[in-house]
Design goal:
PP2A_B56, cytoplasm, Serine/threonine protein phosphatase 2A regulatory subunit, protein phosphatase activator activity
């Protein structure tokens, strides 16, 4: 309705409009813009308006935005209604106009003003996208001021869920009620950064370290749409401003450190890793020591949090990118996986085995041999897991041709490490699928080197005989002690010998 009303009003030339606005501003009482509709936007009463200009338009302008930010130019004018030489001033005036922030928790409050602001934002997006805007220093400053006013905010405590961070499959994402405006502001910021007329030497004074840090803080938003916009924008900033690249990497590392070692709660880890995946793929060779430190100190510890599954895909991609860039890092990565290997979380252990397979696929023979002994000690434990999914996922490693090739070339070392686990599975594992897979793996080793399998079998039986003999010796010792204790009466404070059954602790 407001748009239809305004469109019916007669339009004068821009010069007379500018003069009218200047005259009106001189007679108006200036109202300060609040930070939101909750503080209220003070309305101004128009003074003596210039001839030929409707008081309705003046009242609407002052009702929506304070007269002090209009700067002598009527911002409700369309860009097509002004001459080219005045479009730049109108652009800045509209940006200043959009610095007013409303409260969107109440959709009815200030609905007319919200609609006008959104229409103005859409005009700005179209103007910047068309390439007509000259992004000189005043324009850059005005854009950054408007972005700061609308986007940079502190999320209230109840804005975050009680989860460990990110969005679980059974969780409904939260959507920001102000998204109808935020989305347009993000679109404007993206077009602004990617504009060919934006000079990074000038823009870096306004898109500085403080701006980037506050932009990174927004990645904790629970709205997935906002995080997706931020991901694109931060990637463009990283590409446009080379001077900021080391700082961005350091700032992202700090977010990871705080997440891993302090809070274990953050909604944007997956999106940040997605950006890093593109960044890592562009690293020059040989890799700098700084990048290797980032891998070991920032990326590898991300395996520690319980909610690792939320961002595992992006994390695995980043790590494999490092190994493809420099194969010598494979043994370092596997050491890191073994360092953070879960002991009591079976579902997380399944995820680790899946990532381990991806890492081994890009691992060469030399690096594999450096790490194969501790690695297959751990895999042997997984094969014997009472949780069938863990044992099954470990046995699936033998479905990968590259991993089978690595194992077969080093079978003299690997088979003795895992043969006891294979043998125990074939004898008494409760799950039929695990039992069948174990038989297939044993058969594969037999076809590969039957003599080695027989040697391992003989050694296993020998060790089993020794263990049985030791167990029998312990049993007889307990019986003898119990018999000796039973013939002596218990008097006073005499210590009582505990029976073997109550003293045994199952590990």
């Amino acid at each position: 309705m407001l748009k239809q009303f305004l469109s019916r009003l007669p339009r004068k030339s821009f010069k007379s409009d500018a003069a009218d606005t200047a005259g009106s501003n001189s007679g108006n009482n200036t109202a300060a813009a609040g930070n939101g509709a909750s503080n209220g936007i003070q309305r101004t009463n128009s003074g003596n308006a210039a001839s030929g200009r409707s008081n309705a338009v003046k009242k609407m302008s002052s009702a929506v935005f304070p007269a002090s930010v209009v700067a002598g130019i009527e911002p409700l004018l369309s860009f097509k209604d002004v001459p080219n030489q005045e479009k730049q001033n109108l652009f800045i005036s509209k940006l200043n106009l959009c610095c007013v922030v409303f409260d969107f928790n109440d959709p009815i409050q200030d609905s007319a003003e919200k609609d006008l602001k959104r229409q103005t934002l859409l005009e700005l997006v179209e103007f910047v996208g068309s390439g007509s805007a000259r992004l000189n220093e005043p324009a850059i400053a005005a854009v950054c001021k408007m972005v700061v006013a609308n986007l940079f905010r502190v999320f209230p405590p109840n804005y975050r869920s009680n989860s460990t961070g990110g969005e679980n499959e059974d969780e409904e994402p939260m959507f920001d009620p102000a998204w109808s405006h935020l989305q347009v502001v993000y679109d404007l910021l993206l077009r602004f950064i990617t504009s060919s007329s934006l000079e990074s030497k000038i823009a870096k004074k306004y898109i500085d370290h403080s701006f980037i840090l506050r932009l990174l803080d927004l990645f904790d938003s629970e709205d997935p749409r906002e995080r997706d916009c931020l991901k694109t924008i931060l990637h463009r900033i990283y590409g446009k401003f080379m001077v900021h690249r080391p700082f961005i990497r350091k700032a992202v590392s700090n977010i990871f450190f705080r997440f891993v070692f302090e809070t274990e709660r953050h909604n944007g880890i997956a999106e940040l890793l997605e950006i890093l995946g593109s960044v890592i793929s562009g690293f020059a060779l040989p890799l700098k020591e700084e990048h290797k430190v980032f891998l070991w100190k920032a990326l590898i510890p991300l395996h520690k949090p319980k909610c690792m599954g939320v961002y595992l895909q992006q994390l695995s991609y980043c790590i494999t990118q490092f190994i493809e860039k420099e194969p010598k890092l494979a043994s370092l990565v596997i050491k890191g996986l073994l360092r953070y290997w879960p002991v009591t979380n079976s579902q997380k252990e399944v995820l680790f085995l899946g990532e381990l397979e991806e890492v081994l696929e890009v691992t060469n023979m030399v690096e594999f041999q450096k790490i194969m002994v501790p690695l297959f000690h751990r895999i042997g434990c997984c094969l014997n897991s009472s949780h069938f999914q863990v044992a099954e996922r470990a046995l699936f490693l033998w479905n990968n041709e590259h991993i089978v090739s690595l194992i077969s070339h080093n079978r003299q070392v690997i088979l003795p490490l895992i043969f006891p686990a294979l043998e125990k599975n074939t004898r008494n594992h409760w799950n039929q699928s695990v039992l069948n897979l174990t038989v297939n793996v044993r058969k594969m080793f037999s076809e590969l080197d039957d003599e080695l399998v027989l040697t391992c079998q003989s050694k296993f039986e020998e060790e089993e005989t020794k263990q049985n003999a030791a167990a029998e010796k312990r049993r007889l010792t307990w019986e003898r002690l119990e018999n000796m204790a039973s013939v002596q009466p218990v008097t006073g404070n005499t210590a009582v010998l505990v029976t073997h059954e109550t003293a045994t602790i199952t590990c």
